[in-house]
Design a protein that fits this description.
The chain is about 35% helix and about 30% strand. It is an alpha+beta fold and about 70 residues long. It is found in: Cell membrane.
């Protein structure tokens, strides 16, 4: 039971580190946007209503992958 959790955590950490400006993402709370700026632990995403500053950990690996698969 611990191994799948470790694998998931590793995948999420790799995803967070591979983010780049211009990527389309979905947050865990459901916000859709495009990355405008990156910092060490935070990102600024551009949405239809403006810009939001979020923690990198707030970005959903599964939802973002599904969004990018459609496009």
């Amino acid at each position: 039971m611990i191994r799948p959790q470790q694998k998931r955590a590793k995948n999420e950490k790799e995803f967070e580190s591979s983010l780049k400006v211009g990527d389309k993402i979905v947050t865990k709370s459901g916000f859709h946007g495009k990355i405008a700026e990156l910092a060490e632990t935070t990102v600024v995403i551009e949405t239809m209503s403006g810009k939001l500053k979020l923690e990198r950990s707030a970005i959903s690996l599964e939802l973002s992958a599904a969004l990018n698969k459609k496009a």
